[in-house]
Specification:
The protein is mostly beta strands. The chain is built from 3 helices and 13 strands. The strands form 2 sheets. It has a 6-stranded antiparallel β-barrel. The protein has a 6-stranded antiparallel beta barrel with strand order 2-3-4-7-6-5.
């Protein structure tokens, strides 16, 4: 998982728009969380999101170097086929049997400052973990939030509420860190995700290849 530099994040937050009141939103339930799946390779593990029947979206760096890819669906490993990978926006699309899991819809409206968000993924390739935070800003085509994330949650989902339902707002990409004593120390209040606009464009542009590759 990449590291987000601390100081640019602080600057972006300071320049963000005034606080706008947002409606209350309950945490994602078990059915919603079922759309977040674990991805395993030969020696590494990460997370992914079911975005359509038979399609899982993840971060490009999660599947980097994987010769074989398995997606854990309904507690069973299922072989996945890499359809597309774009390192510029850090996204990858996998074709896999998603066994009837309901896809997570993509957010369509812009996020308001301090909108509640949840970062969900398989921390250290083990149990599913949910970190709650708030939207901070969009900068350099990335979403910055205060939701805590850790290794293994890359490729998982950043969720928020829209029109009364939980929606996929971004794909987890990195956590924030600051340098102390010559070492990078993880921050629990800074995380980075890929924008929904880039996510939607990536899925739509590769959907035809997904249908051919399965």
């Amino acid at each position: 998982m990449f590291f987000a530099k601390l100081f640019p994040i602080l600057i972006v937050v300071a320049l963000s728009s005034p606080v706008i009141a947002t409606a209350q939103c309950s945490p994602p339930d078990r059915q919603t969380k079922a759309g977040i799946v674990k991805i395993e390779g030969e020696t590494t593990a990460g997370s992914g999101v079911v975005v359509a029947p038979g399609l899982v979206l993840t971060a490009a760096h999660v599947v980097e170097g994987m010769d074989t890819i398995d997606v854990i669906v309904q507690q069973r490993p299922r072989p996945a086929h890499l359809i597309a990978r774009d390192t510029t926006i850090d996204l990858a699309l996998l074709a896999v049997d998603t066994d009837g899991i309901a896809p997570l819809p993509l957010r369509r409206s812009a996020l308001d400052t301090k909108t509640p968000v949840w970062a969900i993924g398989y921390a250290f390739g083990k149990r599913l973990k949910t970190g709650k935070g708030k939207f901070r800003a969009v900068a350099n085509r990335l979403i910055y939030t205060s939701a805590p994330v850790n290794f293994g949650q890359s490729g998982g989902g950043l969720l928020s509420c829209e029109n009364g339902q939980h929606v996929l707002t971004g794909i987890i990409r990195a956590f924030g860190a600051e340098k102390k004593g010559g070492k990078l120390i993880r921050r629990n209040d800074v995380s980075v995700a890929t924008r929904t606009d880039d996510t939607r464009l990536f899925i739509d542009s590769n959907r035809i290849y997904a249908s051919l590759g399965r």
